[in-house]
Amino acid sequence: MAGSTRYLRYIVFAFVALIVIFFISSSSQQVPDYETAKNMFKGQGWAHTSPDTPAAGGAGEKEPAAAAPPPAKEPVPAEDIAKTPQGTTETGTTPNPYANSQPKLSGQAPGERMNATFVTLARNSDVWEIARSIRQVEDRFNHNYGYDWVFLNDADFDDTFKKVTSALTSGNTKYGKIDKEHWGFPDFIDQERARKVREDMHERKIIYGDSVSYRHMCRYESGFFFRHPLLLDYEWYWRVEPSIELFCDIAYDPFKFMKEHKKKYSFVLSLYEYVETIPTLWDSVKGFMKAHPEHIVEGNSMAFLSDDGGETYNHCHFWSNFEIGNLDWLRSPAYIDYFNHLDRDGGFFYERWGDAPVHSIAAGLMLKKDEIHFFNDIAYYHVPFTHCPTGEQTRLDLKCHCNPKDNFDWNGYSCTARFFETNGMQKPAGYEKEQ
Ligand SMILES: Nc1nc2c(ncn2[C@@H]2O[C@H](COP(=O)(O)OP(=O)(O)OP(=O)(O)O)[C@@H](O)[C@H]2O)c(=O)[nH]1
Ligand SMILES: *[C@@H]1O[C@H](CO)[C@@H](O)[C@H](O)[C@H]1NC(C)=O
Ligand SMILES: [Mg+2]
Protein backbone atom coordinates (compact mmCIF):
# COMPACT_ATOMS: atom_id res chain seq x y z
CA MET A 1 0.00 0.00 0.00
CA ALA A 2 2.79 2.37 1.00
CA GLY A 3 4.50 1.56 -2.36
CA SER A 4 1.48 2.51 -4.50
CA THR A 5 0.99 5.77 -2.53
CA ARG A 6 4.56 6.63 -3.31
CA TYR A 7 3.96 5.89 -7.03
CA LEU A 8 0.88 8.07 -6.95
CA ARG A 9 2.94 10.84 -5.36
CA TYR A 10 5.55 10.52 -8.13
CA ILE A 11 2.89 10.71 -10.82
CA VAL A 12 1.27 13.80 -9.26
CA PHE A 13 4.69 15.43 -8.93
CA ALA A 14 5.56 14.73 -12.58
CA PHE A 15 2.21 16.10 -13.66
CA VAL A 16 2.69 19.35 -11.69
CA ALA A 17 6.19 19.70 -13.16
CA LEU A 18 4.79 19.34 -16.68
CA ILE A 19 2.21 22.05 -16.03
CA VAL A 20 4.93 24.38 -14.70
CA ILE A 21 7.10 23.75 -17.78
CA PHE A 22 4.13 24.37 -20.06
CA PHE A 23 3.43 27.75 -18.44
CA ILE A 24 7.03 28.87 -18.60
CA SER A 25 7.33 28.03 -22.28
CA SER A 26 4.02 29.56 -23.31
CA SER A 27 4.69 32.82 -21.46
CA SER A 28 8.11 33.20 -23.10
CA GLN A 29 6.45 32.81 -26.49
CA GLN A 30 4.52 35.98 -25.79
CA VAL A 31 7.58 38.19 -25.47
CA PRO A 32 7.86 39.24 -29.15
CA ASP A 33 4.25 40.42 -29.02
CA TYR A 34 5.33 43.53 -27.13
CA GLU A 35 6.71 45.19 -30.26
CA THR A 36 3.71 44.20 -32.31
CA ALA A 37 1.36 45.49 -29.65
CA LYS A 38 3.29 48.75 -29.41
CA ASN A 39 3.08 49.29 -33.15
CA MET A 40 -0.55 48.33 -33.30
CA PHE A 41 -1.16 50.77 -30.53
CA LYS A 42 0.62 53.52 -32.43
CA GLY A 43 -1.43 52.61 -35.49
CA GLN A 44 -4.61 52.94 -33.48
CA GLY A 45 -3.57 56.36 -32.34
CA TRP A 46 -3.22 57.54 -35.87
CA ALA A 47 -6.38 55.83 -37.01
CA HIS A 48 -8.09 57.70 -34.22
CA THR A 49 -6.89 61.09 -35.47
CA SER A 50 -7.05 60.46 -39.18
CA PRO A 51 -9.23 62.58 -41.43
CA ASP A 52 -12.70 61.42 -42.37
CA THR A 53 -11.65 61.08 -45.96
CA PRO A 54 -8.13 60.85 -47.29
CA ALA A 55 -7.19 63.85 -49.39
CA ALA A 56 -8.42 63.44 -52.94
CA GLY A 57 -5.64 62.89 -55.44
CA GLY A 58 -4.96 64.92 -58.52
CA ALA A 59 -6.63 68.20 -57.56
CA GLY A 60 -4.84 71.44 -58.15
CA GLU A 61 -1.82 70.02 -59.92
CA LYS A 62 0.10 72.74 -61.68
CA GLU A 63 3.85 72.66 -61.67
CA PRO A 64 5.87 69.47 -61.77
CA ALA A 65 7.87 68.64 -58.65
CA ALA A 66 11.47 69.77 -58.69
CA ALA A 67 13.38 66.96 -60.35
CA ALA A 68 16.26 65.44 -58.47
CA PRO A 69 19.65 65.64 -60.13
CA PRO A 70 20.58 62.53 -62.11
CA PRO A 71 22.77 59.89 -60.53
CA ALA A 72 26.50 60.48 -61.06
CA LYS A 73 27.66 57.37 -62.92
CA GLU A 74 31.10 58.45 -64.13
CA PRO A 75 34.08 56.90 -62.40
CA VAL A 76 35.98 59.42 -60.35
CA PRO A 77 39.51 60.35 -61.41
CA ALA A 78 42.05 59.85 -58.63
CA GLU A 79 43.09 63.50 -58.58
CA ASP A 80 39.52 64.50 -57.79
CA ILE A 81 39.43 62.50 -54.62
CA ALA A 82 38.87 65.14 -52.00
CA LYS A 83 40.40 64.44 -48.63
CA THR A 84 38.61 65.54 -45.52
CA PRO A 85 40.57 66.27 -42.37
CA GLN A 86 40.79 63.26 -40.10
CA GLY A 87 40.26 63.07 -36.40
CA THR A 88 37.73 63.15 -33.67
CA THR A 89 36.69 66.03 -31.49
CA GLU A 90 35.23 65.82 -28.03
CA THR A 91 33.10 68.05 -25.90
CA GLY A 92 32.36 67.14 -22.33
CA THR A 93 33.54 63.56 -22.68
CA THR A 94 36.80 61.74 -22.24
CA PRO A 95 39.13 61.70 -25.28
CA ASN A 96 38.35 59.03 -27.83
CA PRO A 97 41.29 56.67 -28.18
CA TYR A 98 39.70 54.92 -31.16
CA ALA A 99 39.77 57.80 -33.60
CA ASN A 100 42.05 57.22 -36.55
CA SER A 101 42.72 53.60 -35.63
CA GLN A 102 41.91 52.85 -39.26
CA PRO A 103 42.54 55.08 -42.26
CA LYS A 104 39.27 56.70 -43.28
CA LEU A 105 38.42 55.89 -46.90
CA SER A 106 36.25 58.85 -47.65
CA GLY A 107 35.58 61.60 -50.08
CA GLN A 108 35.50 59.82 -53.43
CA ALA A 109 32.70 61.85 -54.96
CA PRO A 110 34.01 64.84 -56.91
CA GLY A 111 33.07 68.37 -56.12
CA GLU A 112 32.87 70.58 -53.08
CA ARG A 113 31.51 69.55 -49.71
CA MET A 114 28.78 71.41 -47.89
CA ASN A 115 29.17 72.73 -44.37
CA ALA A 116 27.21 69.75 -43.07
CA THR A 117 27.07 66.89 -40.59
CA PHE A 118 25.03 63.90 -39.59
CA VAL A 119 23.63 64.18 -36.08
CA THR A 120 22.45 61.41 -33.79
CA LEU A 121 21.05 61.62 -30.30
CA ALA A 122 21.59 58.29 -28.57
CA ARG A 123 22.23 56.38 -25.38
CA ASN A 124 25.13 53.99 -24.95
CA SER A 125 22.62 51.15 -25.02
CA ASP A 126 21.59 52.21 -28.55
CA VAL A 127 25.03 51.33 -29.93
CA TRP A 128 24.10 48.24 -31.96
CA GLU A 129 20.94 49.84 -33.28
CA ILE A 130 22.75 52.98 -34.37
CA ALA A 131 25.52 50.82 -35.83
CA ARG A 132 22.98 49.35 -38.26
CA SER A 133 21.79 52.82 -39.22
CA ILE A 134 25.32 54.13 -39.76
CA ARG A 135 26.29 51.16 -41.90
CA GLN A 136 23.36 51.81 -44.22
CA VAL A 137 23.91 55.55 -44.43
CA GLU A 138 27.56 54.95 -45.23
CA ASP A 139 26.90 52.20 -47.79
CA ARG A 140 24.15 54.06 -49.59
CA PHE A 141 25.66 57.53 -49.47
CA ASN A 142 28.34 58.77 -47.16
CA HIS A 143 31.27 56.50 -48.05
CA ASN A 144 31.50 58.65 -51.18
CA TYR A 145 31.36 61.93 -49.28
CA GLY A 146 32.90 61.52 -45.83
CA TYR A 147 30.62 63.94 -44.03
CA ASP A 148 31.15 64.28 -40.28
CA TRP A 149 28.95 62.67 -37.67
CA VAL A 150 28.06 64.30 -34.36
CA PHE A 151 26.77 62.09 -31.54
CA LEU A 152 24.93 63.66 -28.61
CA ASN A 153 23.98 62.09 -25.30
CA ASP A 154 22.71 63.24 -21.90
CA ALA A 155 25.34 60.94 -20.33
CA ASP A 156 29.00 60.29 -21.22
CA PHE A 157 29.48 58.04 -24.22
CA ASP A 158 31.33 54.87 -23.28
CA ASP A 159 34.31 53.36 -25.07
CA THR A 160 32.30 50.72 -26.90
CA PHE A 161 29.98 53.34 -28.35
CA LYS A 162 32.88 55.48 -29.53
CA LYS A 163 34.88 52.53 -30.85
CA VAL A 164 32.03 51.03 -32.87
CA THR A 165 30.71 54.28 -34.31
CA SER A 166 34.16 55.68 -35.17
CA ALA A 167 34.99 52.48 -37.02
CA LEU A 168 31.82 52.57 -39.10
CA THR A 169 31.90 56.20 -40.21
CA SER A 170 33.90 57.62 -43.12
CA GLY A 171 34.03 61.19 -41.82
CA ASN A 172 35.12 62.67 -38.52
CA THR A 173 33.20 61.67 -35.42
CA LYS A 174 32.46 64.03 -32.56
CA TYR A 175 30.92 63.07 -29.23
CA GLY A 176 29.09 65.64 -27.15
CA LYS A 177 27.50 65.63 -23.76
CA ILE A 178 24.29 67.59 -23.35
CA ASP A 179 24.16 70.47 -20.90
CA LYS A 180 22.01 69.74 -17.82
CA GLU A 181 20.14 72.99 -18.54
CA HIS A 182 18.93 71.56 -21.84
CA TRP A 183 17.96 68.12 -20.53
CA GLY A 184 15.74 68.55 -17.51
CA PHE A 185 12.75 70.38 -16.11
CA PRO A 186 12.84 74.15 -16.54
CA ASP A 187 12.13 75.95 -13.25
CA PHE A 188 8.74 77.22 -14.41
CA ILE A 189 7.40 73.66 -14.66
CA ASP A 190 5.19 72.45 -11.82
CA GLN A 191 6.68 69.02 -11.09
CA GLU A 192 3.61 67.77 -9.28
CA ARG A 193 1.33 68.65 -12.17
CA ALA A 194 3.75 66.99 -14.62
CA ARG A 195 3.85 63.83 -12.50
CA LYS A 196 0.05 63.59 -12.42
CA VAL A 197 -0.05 63.91 -16.19
CA ARG A 198 2.38 61.02 -16.56
CA GLU A 199 0.29 58.83 -14.25
CA ASP A 200 -2.85 59.67 -16.15
CA MET A 201 -1.23 59.01 -19.53
CA HIS A 202 0.14 55.74 -18.18
CA GLU A 203 -3.37 54.66 -17.25
CA ARG A 204 -4.67 55.68 -20.65
CA LYS A 205 -1.83 53.61 -22.19
CA ILE A 206 -0.51 56.49 -24.28
CA ILE A 207 2.77 55.44 -25.78
CA TYR A 208 5.72 56.90 -23.80
CA GLY A 209 3.02 58.74 -21.81
CA ASP A 210 4.66 57.93 -18.47
CA SER A 211 8.23 58.60 -19.60
CA VAL A 212 10.26 61.53 -18.26
CA SER A 213 13.28 60.87 -20.49
CA TYR A 214 11.15 60.73 -23.64
CA ARG A 215 9.86 64.21 -22.79
CA HIS A 216 13.38 65.54 -22.24
CA MET A 217 14.34 64.01 -25.59
CA CYS A 218 11.40 65.65 -27.41
CA ARG A 219 12.14 69.03 -25.85
CA TYR A 220 15.84 68.73 -26.63
CA GLU A 221 15.19 67.86 -30.28
CA SER A 222 12.66 70.68 -30.49
CA GLY A 223 14.71 73.46 -29.03
CA PHE A 224 18.33 72.66 -28.27
CA PHE A 225 20.24 70.19 -30.42
CA PHE A 226 21.09 72.83 -33.05
CA ARG A 227 22.59 75.02 -30.32
CA HIS A 228 24.95 72.35 -29.02
CA PRO A 229 28.52 73.67 -29.29
CA LEU A 230 29.46 70.87 -31.70
CA LEU A 231 26.69 71.87 -34.11
CA LEU A 232 27.55 75.56 -34.12
CA ASP A 233 30.30 74.66 -36.60
CA TYR A 234 27.81 73.55 -39.26
CA GLU A 235 25.14 74.99 -41.48
CA TRP A 236 23.34 71.75 -42.43
CA TYR A 237 22.30 68.63 -40.51
CA TRP A 238 20.93 65.24 -41.34
CA ARG A 239 19.29 63.49 -38.42
CA VAL A 240 19.76 59.73 -38.09
CA GLU A 241 18.07 57.55 -35.50
CA PRO A 242 18.85 54.00 -34.37
CA SER A 243 17.34 51.09 -36.35
CA ILE A 244 16.47 52.96 -39.49
CA GLU A 245 16.96 51.55 -42.98
CA LEU A 246 17.89 53.16 -46.30
CA PHE A 247 16.74 51.10 -49.26
CA CYS A 248 18.19 52.94 -52.25
CA ASP A 249 21.48 54.46 -53.31
CA ILE A 250 21.65 58.18 -52.84
CA ALA A 251 23.39 59.19 -56.01
CA TYR A 252 23.91 62.89 -55.35
CA ASP A 253 24.60 65.09 -52.36
CA PRO A 254 21.28 65.96 -50.64
CA PHE A 255 22.99 68.74 -48.65
CA LYS A 256 24.08 70.36 -51.89
CA PHE A 257 20.62 69.87 -53.32
CA MET A 258 19.15 71.68 -50.32
CA LYS A 259 21.53 74.58 -50.72
CA GLU A 260 21.22 74.93 -54.48
CA HIS A 261 17.43 74.79 -54.40
CA LYS A 262 17.17 77.13 -51.39
CA LYS A 263 15.54 74.49 -49.20
CA LYS A 264 15.55 74.81 -45.42
CA TYR A 265 13.73 71.68 -44.27
CA SER A 266 12.96 68.29 -45.76
CA PHE A 267 11.12 65.05 -45.09
CA VAL A 268 10.42 61.58 -46.46
CA LEU A 269 7.36 60.54 -44.42
CA SER A 270 4.43 62.54 -43.13
CA LEU A 271 1.43 61.51 -41.07
CA TYR A 272 -1.23 62.53 -38.56
CA GLU A 273 -0.08 63.06 -34.98
CA TYR A 274 -1.62 61.13 -32.12
CA VAL A 275 -3.94 63.85 -30.78
CA GLU A 276 -3.79 62.73 -27.13
CA THR A 277 -0.16 63.86 -27.00
CA ILE A 278 -0.79 67.44 -28.21
CA PRO A 279 -4.31 68.60 -27.18
CA THR A 280 -3.27 72.24 -26.62
CA LEU A 281 -0.28 72.53 -28.98
CA TRP A 282 -2.24 74.50 -31.56
CA ASP A 283 -3.54 76.91 -28.87
CA SER A 284 0.07 77.61 -28.01
CA VAL A 285 0.92 78.09 -31.69
CA LYS A 286 -1.96 80.55 -32.05
CA GLY A 287 -0.64 82.44 -29.03
CA PHE A 288 2.74 82.61 -30.73
CA MET A 289 1.25 83.84 -34.02
CA LYS A 290 -0.52 86.59 -32.15
CA ALA A 291 2.54 87.60 -30.16
CA HIS A 292 4.91 87.42 -33.15
CA PRO A 293 3.04 88.11 -36.38
CA GLU A 294 6.35 89.33 -37.83
CA HIS A 295 7.64 85.73 -37.90
CA ILE A 296 4.76 84.31 -39.93
CA VAL A 297 5.90 84.18 -43.53
CA GLU A 298 3.81 85.02 -46.55
CA GLY A 299 3.37 82.08 -48.90
CA ASN A 300 3.69 79.57 -46.06
CA SER A 301 2.21 76.07 -45.75
CA MET A 302 -0.73 76.84 -43.48
CA ALA A 303 -2.92 74.83 -45.86
CA PHE A 304 -0.82 71.76 -45.07
CA LEU A 305 -1.38 72.21 -41.31
CA SER A 306 -4.95 73.43 -41.14
CA ASP A 307 -8.18 72.82 -43.06
CA ASP A 308 -9.86 75.98 -41.79
CA GLY A 309 -7.30 78.69 -42.39
CA GLY A 310 -5.54 78.26 -39.05
CA GLU A 311 -8.46 77.91 -36.63
CA THR A 312 -7.66 74.25 -35.88
CA TYR A 313 -4.73 71.91 -36.51
CA ASN A 314 -5.32 68.91 -38.76
CA HIS A 315 -2.43 67.05 -37.04
CA CYS A 316 -0.36 66.69 -40.22
CA HIS A 317 3.36 66.67 -39.58
CA PHE A 318 6.63 65.63 -41.14
CA TRP A 319 8.18 62.65 -39.36
CA SER A 320 11.26 64.10 -37.72
CA ASN A 321 13.29 60.94 -37.12
CA PHE A 322 14.53 61.70 -40.65
CA GLU A 323 15.37 65.33 -41.34
CA ILE A 324 17.80 67.17 -43.52
CA GLY A 325 17.65 70.81 -42.62
CA ASN A 326 19.30 74.15 -42.16
CA LEU A 327 20.75 74.77 -38.71
CA ASP A 328 20.94 78.53 -39.18
CA TRP A 329 17.18 78.60 -39.68
CA LEU A 330 16.65 76.71 -36.39
CA ARG A 331 19.03 79.16 -34.72
CA SER A 332 17.18 82.19 -36.14
CA PRO A 333 15.32 84.60 -33.83
CA ALA A 334 12.02 83.48 -35.42
CA TYR A 335 12.52 79.82 -34.51
CA ILE A 336 13.92 80.62 -31.05
CA ASP A 337 10.97 82.92 -30.26
CA TYR A 338 8.66 80.14 -31.41
CA PHE A 339 10.34 77.47 -29.29
CA ASN A 340 10.48 79.70 -26.20
CA HIS A 341 6.80 80.51 -26.54
CA LEU A 342 5.83 76.83 -26.77
CA ASP A 343 8.22 75.85 -23.99
CA ARG A 344 6.70 78.43 -21.62
CA ASP A 345 3.24 76.99 -22.19
CA GLY A 346 4.57 73.77 -20.68
CA GLY A 347 3.18 71.17 -23.09
CA PHE A 348 6.43 69.27 -23.33
CA PHE A 349 5.71 68.19 -19.72
CA TYR A 350 1.97 68.82 -19.14
CA GLU A 351 1.20 66.92 -22.33
CA ARG A 352 3.73 65.02 -24.43
CA TRP A 353 4.50 67.30 -27.35
CA GLY A 354 6.73 65.63 -29.90
CA ASP A 355 9.51 67.34 -31.80
CA ALA A 356 7.93 66.22 -35.08
CA PRO A 357 4.81 68.43 -34.87
CA VAL A 358 6.90 71.20 -33.27
CA HIS A 359 9.39 71.26 -36.15
CA SER A 360 6.68 70.77 -38.77
CA ILE A 361 4.50 73.61 -37.57
CA ALA A 362 7.55 75.88 -37.47
CA ALA A 363 8.48 74.93 -41.03
CA GLY A 364 4.85 75.28 -42.11
CA LEU A 365 4.45 78.81 -40.76
CA MET A 366 7.91 80.34 -40.89
CA LEU A 367 9.25 79.01 -44.19
CA LYS A 368 7.99 79.66 -47.66
CA LYS A 369 6.23 76.68 -49.23
CA ASP A 370 9.04 75.90 -51.63
CA GLU A 371 11.66 75.93 -48.86
CA ILE A 372 10.32 72.54 -47.70
CA HIS A 373 11.40 69.56 -49.75
CA PHE A 374 10.05 66.02 -50.09
CA PHE A 375 12.83 63.56 -50.97
CA ASN A 376 11.04 60.93 -53.04
CA ASP A 377 14.36 59.31 -53.91
CA ILE A 378 15.56 58.75 -50.33
CA ALA A 379 14.02 55.41 -49.38
CA TYR A 380 13.59 55.09 -45.65
CA TYR A 381 12.21 52.97 -42.86
CA HIS A 382 11.67 53.73 -39.19
CA VAL A 383 9.31 51.43 -37.35
CA PRO A 384 6.51 51.14 -38.38
CA PHE A 385 6.52 53.11 -41.68
CA THR A 386 8.33 52.84 -45.00
CA HIS A 387 8.94 55.38 -47.70
CA CYS A 388 9.75 53.43 -50.88
CA PRO A 389 10.12 55.73 -53.92
CA THR A 390 7.17 55.91 -56.25
CA GLY A 391 8.17 55.09 -59.83
CA GLU A 392 9.75 51.82 -60.95
CA GLN A 393 12.54 53.42 -62.99
CA THR A 394 13.71 55.41 -59.95
CA ARG A 395 13.80 52.23 -57.86
CA LEU A 396 15.77 50.35 -60.50
CA ASP A 397 18.22 53.19 -61.14
CA LEU A 398 18.91 53.57 -57.45
CA LYS A 399 19.25 49.82 -56.75
CA CYS A 400 16.41 49.91 -54.23
CA HIS A 401 15.57 46.86 -52.15
CA CYS A 402 12.26 48.03 -50.67
CA ASN A 403 8.92 46.54 -51.65
CA PRO A 404 6.88 49.30 -53.33
CA LYS A 405 3.78 47.81 -51.68
CA ASP A 406 5.16 48.97 -48.33
CA ASN A 407 5.23 52.62 -49.42
CA PHE A 408 3.16 54.66 -46.99
CA ASP A 409 2.97 57.89 -49.03
CA TRP A 410 -0.39 57.42 -50.73
CA ASN A 411 -2.06 55.73 -47.78
CA GLY A 412 -4.96 57.63 -46.17
CA TYR A 413 -3.01 58.14 -42.95
CA SER A 414 -0.14 59.87 -44.74
CA CYS A 415 -0.18 63.64 -45.28
CA THR A 416 2.10 63.48 -48.30
CA ALA A 417 -0.73 63.71 -50.87
CA ARG A 418 -1.86 66.85 -49.08
CA PHE A 419 1.68 68.22 -49.28
CA PHE A 420 1.67 67.74 -53.04
CA GLU A 421 -1.74 69.33 -53.38
CA THR A 422 -1.09 72.35 -51.18
CA ASN A 423 2.13 72.97 -53.10
CA GLY A 424 0.48 72.57 -56.49
CA MET A 425 2.90 69.77 -57.28
CA GLN A 426 2.35 66.86 -59.62
CA LYS A 427 2.45 63.50 -57.84
CA PRO A 428 5.11 61.08 -59.07
CA ALA A 429 4.08 58.91 -62.01
CA GLY A 430 2.59 55.65 -60.84
CA TYR A 431 1.26 56.88 -57.49
CA GLU A 432 -2.32 55.80 -58.29
CA LYS A 433 -1.25 52.19 -58.39
CA GLU A 434 0.03 52.47 -54.84
CA GLN A 435 -3.13 53.86 -53.24
N1 LIG B 1 20.90 60.12 -24.93
C1 LIG B 1 19.62 59.79 -24.98
N2 LIG B 1 19.03 59.61 -26.17
C2 LIG B 1 17.73 59.26 -26.19
C3 LIG B 1 16.95 59.09 -25.01
N3 LIG B 1 15.70 58.75 -25.38
C4 LIG B 1 15.68 58.70 -26.71
N4 LIG B 1 16.89 59.01 -27.22
C5 LIG B 1 17.27 59.11 -28.64
O1 LIG B 1 16.35 60.00 -29.22
C6 LIG B 1 15.92 59.55 -30.48
C7 LIG B 1 14.41 59.29 -30.47
O2 LIG B 1 14.09 58.32 -29.51
P1 LIG B 1 13.28 57.00 -29.89
O3 LIG B 1 13.26 56.13 -28.68
O4 LIG B 1 13.81 56.44 -31.16
O5 LIG B 1 11.83 57.61 -30.10
P2 LIG B 1 10.77 57.28 -31.23
O6 LIG B 1 11.46 57.28 -32.58
O7 LIG B 1 9.63 58.19 -31.03
O8 LIG B 1 10.26 55.84 -30.85
P3 LIG B 1 10.72 54.39 -31.36
O9 LIG B 1 9.54 53.87 -32.11
O10 LIG B 1 10.99 53.67 -30.07
O11 LIG B 1 11.96 54.54 -32.22
C8 LIG B 1 16.73 58.30 -30.78
O12 LIG B 1 17.84 58.72 -31.54
C9 LIG B 1 17.13 57.81 -29.41
O13 LIG B 1 18.36 57.12 -29.47
C10 LIG B 1 17.62 59.30 -23.75
O14 LIG B 1 17.03 59.18 -22.67
N5 LIG B 1 18.94 59.64 -23.80
C1 LIG C 1 29.82 76.57 -41.28
O1 LIG C 1 28.60 77.10 -40.77
C2 LIG C 1 28.71 77.71 -39.49
C3 LIG C 1 27.31 78.09 -39.07
O2 LIG C 1 26.68 78.87 -40.03
C4 LIG C 1 29.67 78.90 -39.57
O3 LIG C 1 29.81 79.47 -38.30
C5 LIG C 1 31.01 78.39 -40.07
O4 LIG C 1 31.88 79.49 -40.23
C6 LIG C 1 30.86 77.67 -41.40
N1 LIG C 1 32.13 77.07 -41.76
C7 LIG C 1 32.61 77.16 -42.99
C8 LIG C 1 33.90 76.46 -43.22
O5 LIG C 1 32.05 77.78 -43.87
MG1 LIG D 1 13.15 56.16 -33.10
In short:
The protein has helices spanning 2-29, 33-49, 127-140, 159-168, 191-203, 212-223, 254-260, 281-291, 302-305, 327-330, 333-345, 347-350, 355-366, 392-397, 416-422; strands at 88-91, 116-121, 148-153, 173-177, 236-239, 245-246, 265-267, 270-272, 316-318, 323-326, 372-374, 380-382, 385-387. The protein has 435 residues and is of the alpha/beta class.
Overview of the molecule:
The chain is of the alpha/beta class. It is 37% helix and 11% strand. Strands 1-4-3-2-5-10 form a 6-stranded mixed beta sheet. It has a 3-stranded antiparallel beta sheet with strand order 6-12-13. The termini are far apart. 2-acetamido-2-deoxy-beta-D-glucopyranose is lined by residues 115, 233-235, 328. Belongs to the glycosyltransferase 15 family. Residues 45-110 are annotated as: Disordered. Keywords: Glycosyltransferase, Membrane, Transferase, Transmembrane, Transmembrane helix.
